[in-house]
User: Fold this.
Amino acid sequence: MKLQDIFPAADQLKLIKGAESDLLKRRQKGMVGFVVGISAAVIQIGFAAVSSDYARRFGQALQALAHLQLRSLITNPEAIGLLVIVACFGVWFTLRWTSVLAKESKEPFTYTFWIEPFEPIVGTPGDRLQLIAEDRLHLLNHDLMQRVRERIRRLSLLNAEKELSETARSYLTSHVQVRGSYTVREDRDGEWILQIISRIRIGPPGKPETMAHPVKVALTDGGSGEAERVLTADKYHQLLEHVYSRVASEIYKQIRDDVKTKSEMFPSSYLRAVALYHEAFDFERSNTIDAYALAIEFYRQAKRYFDIRIFGWLPRIFARVNWLPLWRLSKASLMAEANTRIGFARSLIYRRIISSFSSRRQYPLFEIPAELDRIISILALLEKRMDRTFRARDYVPSGADEPRALSAGDQYRTLMGFLTHPSDSALRRGRADFDQLHEMLSMAYTVAALAYCYLKAPQRAKSFLDSARAAKPNYSDESPLWWLVRAEAETDVNKKLNFLRKATEFDSSFEIAQYRLAQSSERKARIRDEIPMEQVDSLIEEYDKVLRINPGNIGALSAQGYLLWLSGKLEEAQKKFNEGLQSKAIVRQTFVGDLQYGLARVAAENGEINRSFTLFTQALSADPAVAVHSPSSGVQSNYDYIADGILKRYEAFKAKVEERLQAETTRDSSNDFSFIAQST
Assistant:
């Protein structure tokens, strides 16, 4: 261990911000006390070795200390040394192993970052090929920095190479450095592709780097010969989003490992739990399924720390004591625990929804009802202590690990309690805490409503939404989640669209609401038999809004490809399906059966019968249930609400493929493709 790891230098502390800086300063002070205490103990041992009557004087010092004889203590060097040792070790123990004077984390650990220009690999491709519009790659690092800064908010820009000295750079324990290279090369089929390789490092120079998975895009023919290819604007933006996805995934992985180490710096389980809550909430805001998985991991760890703390049972005991205001001592602890459990339940549901959009494995929701039951019981207990005028009936956990919505009477009492609670004054405080508590109650009821929407209980979901508005009447005016749940519980498509538009107006980056809006718009167009008519372009634009939020949303790409196929735009449909397949390399555990099935349709209609059959078998291998429709599944599919327009498109497709098959059969009578016609 280096000395700077024990005693951080002033320059190092200037480079580190937020909770980490406070923890390092605390550790520094504790280590100073430890070193001084050890030094004093060594001096005492030295005196004992050279002095024959040391034991007698030390005994007198202990006796004076026991009787608080201050004059004798001041004149006795042994007593002074003993006091120094006790005080220094007391400071070290307090700062290292207790939460006394320690601050709760108010935000996630902060990081700085910088992305170097991407350099071409020298000598490739040589004279074999000329890449036209290569200058677009000169903007790649700048565009990446803009996206990283906008989407990973904990990161702030720092050009360490130019702005810091070599010594200062060695202290950059929380700095993310990204660099990369690119080349034009031939793939196995002889097609020219552009390949980007990124390398990511967290920490000072000399720390190992992680190589992100390479990004490859096919180049457009230049039109002037075989020796020219063009990097079009469309290809560049596609490349940019794919590189960002790879870089962001690696940054999140390294931040996760770094946070696990830094969270151990907090001296108590409670402070670690609060710190991990802030980390989880930051990951949750990133709107991607991988980030939701990391958020769930941190929320789960935070829950564990709340459960294993030594006196974790005391806050609930204090909150239940009626005759003393002991609940005020436990208020912060109980609210922090409730926030953590709400975030955990919310992230579980979000991951389930996003996984269905991205053709991922569906995750169960069995943990959520019990969590929500516990959350609401904690918050209802605090509400009872804070408001004694219009107090709601005691919330008793159901025993069946399922939360209960408020009855009509409790909704009235909760609403009146919120509206009539006194404002802060010179003699009374607590309105801000009361408002925060009711906002948390509203969030808990809303998350419960969302859970029951996906557990096929829409009426129960609506009762929880009513409870959320009773807890905070203006909650629906500021919560996009409330409007999303209201839309999910609604069966009328026009009302559903209105609710979803309100959700996206509150938060334009809310991927779930934007995707549901696109799906519901498509559903309405199907019901009105506007597909495959002029309505398709506006529907594709709705899915484009989803892709601007998350380029890895394979469900949106698949929906666009299908809509384009319905409208007869085969080349554009094929492009969308291929984009989805390319996202497979970015998004892990992705099922691409629908994409390959869509490509098989396009190939069959273009007369590429053998390729169509290969893609069809690949689709079956990826998903044996591809093209199977089950109305009871609850998932919107391509085969819902098929009106005359869509039916005529399938009839035209069938006739065209049969014509292609007949031509193939005539050309080679030895091949029998009749079974393919039945499959399509």
Observations:
- The longest helix spans residues 18-50.
